[in-house]
Amino acid sequence: MTAETIPAPSSLERKLPLIINMSEVDAQAQKRLLKMGKTMKMSGFRPGKVPMKVVQQTYGAQAQSEAIGDVVSRAYSQAVVAQKIRPAGPPNIVPVEPPEASDEGSAPKELRFEAVVEVYPDIAVPERGNLAVERWSAEPVDADVDRTLETLRRQKVTHETTDRPAQADDRVRLDFEGSIDGVAFDGGSSTDFQFVVGAGQMLPEFDAAVVGMRATDTKTFPLTFPADYRATNLAGKESQFKITLHEVLGPVLPALDDALAAAFGVEQGGLDKLRDDVRKNLTREVQIRCKTKTKQSVMDALLTASAFDVPKALIDGESQRMADQMREQMVSQGMNAKDAPFPVELFREGATRRVRLGLLVSEIVRAQQLQANEVQLRVLLGEMAESYEKPEEFIRWTLSQADRRAEAEAIVTEDNVVEWVLAAARVQTKAVSVEELMKEAS
């Protein structure tokens, strides 16, 4: 058995010729036949006593086929070691036309195969001094805290009947009847139906039709369903709706006081304690978002400064994983997508970026020894546990779960890479308001 590298047609594809001696195949096949003979059952013979000639006639072809597979697999593994290559995926092994027999009618003494496999690329770590990155910065101010408190007030809003025309944020009670070409359709009618105007519960045309109406008013208006409407039988269809408004209920916001604080679980300290909690939580959220935006800038800079081919096998695998994740997400949201076809080509661009970035980061971690250590891991978990009632229990549970621990280690390792880049890159601080940061993140 010998192996040598043949010049490859691409930078990552390798072709390994595999020459298999038939004597090795025959020896392996014979071992298999002996093993099969010990358990073979046949009428007229005791178990294990079937003549080897009969075993050969029955299982000879199977034994030789399996033996060839084993010998070829071993030859491939040896060739990989001999050539010092790192396969990025399974090989495609195909037979090669055997050489002509030296004697007419004699069987060939060897079999030839060719293994085609992609290997991991050689990656050069970019020079940090050549990288231009942005370090995001934001600091919550009183106006940000007030804005968050206002959001909390709106979560506790109630509605009271009013005699004015309906407007955004009002809750309305009405009857509606929908039809297409004069024919009512399933789900197109309801009585005493309630919704908040402008809250996204209804299509924008429906909200717009209600605005300005008073209780007892009736209106008929056209509505075209979006082309991507969830009810496919209505998608893109033009319809008519008749609505009769029964009641307009205006929003009533609770006072910004201790009672509101109690409604959010603040048992002591009242509004001052709620405000303090909001500031702390907002500060933590802002820090996380700034860190995320900074990390994105670093990763983008690394990718821009790096050029290397990516194994197709890794891209295919990541594309399929992304497609499967999308399907699972849609199913979890109640969509009928379990058996829906998801062309992996739709995810290839994103998959290529993920794989490229993963390979690059892994090489940086290896070359610079940036693996997560136990101290860093516990610091991260301590930060994550701040929102839990029993932080220590959360930390112990995470460390005891192999998959959860691995996820935390991956976060720390990426953070190490970011800090390594920031230590020597051309860093520009991007100071933004909290409001701008939230818009950027969304």
Structure, described:
This protein folds into three domains: 13-118, 2-Layer Sandwich (Alpha-Beta Plaits), CATH 3.30.70.1050; 128-142 and 262-441, Trigger factor, C-terminal domain (Trigger factor, domain 2), CATH 1.10.3120; 157-252, Roll (Chitinase A, domain 3), CATH 3.10.50. It is 46% helix and 19% strand. The strands form three sheets. Strands 5, 6, 7, 8 and 9 form a five-stranded antiparallel beta sheet that branches. A three-stranded antiparallel beta sheet has the order 1-3-2. The chain is extended, with a radius of gyration of 34 Å. Helix 1 (22-39) packs across helix 2. The model has no long low-confidence stretch (mean pLDDT 90). The chain is built from twelve helices and ten strands. It is α+β, with helices and mostly antiparallel strands.
Summary tags:
46% helix; 3 domains; alpha+beta; Alpha-Beta Plaits; 442 residues; three-stranded antiparallel sheet; Trigger factor, domain 2
